[in-house]
């Protein structure tokens, strides 16, 4: 039987998009305490089922799929541009398809105004009205107001009219930047992206016997299972190695590993991979906020997914990739070097190469060299950096990686950053192999 908390979440999920909810209303309708209703609404917000909008309240919204994560709601646009809502507050939960800058004559502008668009324009009252009539929201730049008739129309059509003190170019840049940041997040795989949706995981109960474990092994051909209590909360993990030496009638909870490492659906896949490799874990239980079992992921599932994503052409550029963009490979005295120029974006307030960027450049150089020596996925284990001299803006630097030790699971490298053959920074890098 589901708990009151779960019943509230199911109730919220069935509400129409745009429906306003409150703690008191939920508590009254479902006969629960205000505290229980509040906690459930907060969880619904973390799951993307509802969104709290300033001066409007908490509204049921359409849960974004990963494929739509780069699309912004009008409420998010208000926050991005520090805007004020002049009308149409009831439509703030809606998603904009694209934005259009209205720096043209009205006849030409009309070719670009479509339902779901956001028109960015100055104090042109007739344009505001025509955009709303064509089912597009309006963002007025320069801090200007609009007419009472436009505000009334916005309220009737539930299409927001927003005012921002910034100019058109600035607000367009801010919105574009927010969408670009979303694109990078979209490509960061989470556990929920690889978790089988329609496959229930195999698991054992804490009061099952060792004999039940052996029966499960014969039925499923698996050798490790999560263990749950009477409320389906994960309390342990049990493997074939754990049950050795126990009698068939002994309880599972005596042999299992208690308080196992777990992941949630919002754990990044890279973090899960690191945890599994570092701790030598083959299977990771995935739980919700109440430690209830949702599914399991294997080490092989995680590594496969990470390898697949690395081959995709649409992956957004991260800070690491942007920092290394201007560097190219050269050969010098039979040695491979990476050469590039220190750009203004790489420096601190004093015009010197920042520590963070220096770390990124050396790490990327080391990993590129190691990938040539072996196949598979690598991760940094230890990093020690020594700055010997300040590295100025517009300086051309050579980064020279040298392998000190290359074992089956671990590699050590010495990496030097040089200017005119003089060492200005030096690092010792240790990396380990993430086995499949």
From TrEMBL:
Keyword Zinc: no
Stretches assigned to the CBS domain: 197-254, 256-312
Gene3D superfamilies per record: 3.90.1280.20, CBS-domain, Hotdog Thioesterase, HprK N-terminal domain-like, Winged helix-like DNA-binding domain superfamily/Winged helix DNA-binding domain
InterPro entries documented for this protein: CBS_dom, CBS_dom_sf, Diverse_CBS-Domain, DRTGG, HotDog_dom_sf, Ser_kin/Pase_Hpr-like_N_sf, Thioestr_dom, WH-like_DNA-bd_sf
Source organism, top-level taxon: Bacteria
SUPFAM superfamilies noted in UniProt: CBS-domain pair, HprK N-terminal domain-like, Thioesterase/thiol ester dehydrase-isomerase, Winged helix' DNA-binding domain
Keywords noted in UniProt: CBS domain
Keyword Transferase: no
Entry protein name: Predicted transcriptional regulator containing CBS domains
């Amino acid at each position: 039987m589901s708990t009151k908390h779960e019943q509230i979440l199911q109730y919220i999920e069935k509400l129409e998009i745009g429906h306003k909810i409150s703690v008191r209303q939920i508590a009254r309708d479902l006969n629960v305490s205000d505290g229980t209703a509040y906690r459930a609404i907060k969880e619904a917000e973390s799951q993307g089922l509802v969104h709290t909008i300033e001066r409007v309240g908490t509204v049921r919204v359409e849960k974004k799929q990963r494929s739509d994560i780069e699309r912004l709601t009008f409420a998010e646009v208000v926050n991005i541009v520090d805007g004020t809502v002049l009308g149409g507050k009831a439509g703030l939960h809606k998603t904009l398809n694209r934005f259009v800058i209205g720096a043209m004559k009205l006849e030409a502008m009309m070719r670009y105004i479509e339902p779901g668009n956001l028109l960015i324009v100055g104090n042109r009252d007739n344009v505001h009205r025509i955009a709303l009539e064509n089912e597009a929201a309006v963002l007025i730049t320069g801090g200007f107001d609009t007419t009472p008739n436009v505000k009334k129309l916005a309220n009737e059509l539930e299409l927001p009219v927003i005012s921002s003190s910034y100019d058109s170019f600035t607000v367009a840049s801010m919105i574009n930047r927010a969408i670009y940041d979303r694109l990078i997040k979209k490509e960061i795989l989470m556990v929920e992206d690889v978790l089988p949706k329609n496959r229930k995981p195999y698991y054992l109960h804490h009061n099952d016997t060792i004999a039940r474990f052996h029966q499960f092994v014969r039925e499923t051909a698996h050798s490790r299972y999560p263990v749950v209590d009477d409320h389906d909360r994960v309390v342990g993990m049990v493997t074939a190695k754990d049950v050795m030496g126990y009698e068939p009638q002994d309880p599972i909870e005596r042999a299992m590993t208690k308080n196992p490492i777990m992941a949630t659906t919002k754990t990044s896949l890279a973090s899960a991979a690191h945890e599994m490799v570092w701790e030598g874990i083959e299977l990771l239980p995935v739980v919700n906020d109440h430690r209830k079992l949702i599914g399991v992921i294997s080490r092989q599932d995680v590594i496969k997914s990470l390898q697949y994503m690395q081959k995709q052409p649409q992956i957004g550029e991260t800070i690491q990739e942007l920092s290394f963009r201007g560097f190219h490979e050269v050969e010098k005295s039979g040695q491979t070097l990476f050469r590039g120029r220190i750009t203004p974006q790489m420096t601190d307030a004093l015009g010197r190469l920042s520590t963070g960027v220096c770390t990124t450049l050396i790490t990327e150089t080391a990993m590129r060299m190691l990938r040539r020596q072996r196949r598979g996925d690598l991760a940094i284990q230890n990093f020690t950096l020594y700055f010997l001299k300040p590295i100025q803006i517009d300086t051309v630097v050579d980064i020279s990686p040298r392998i000190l030790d290359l074992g089956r699971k671990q590699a050590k490298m010495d990496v030097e950053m040089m200017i005119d053959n003089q060492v200005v920074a030096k690092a010792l890098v240790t990396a380990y192999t993430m086995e499949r």
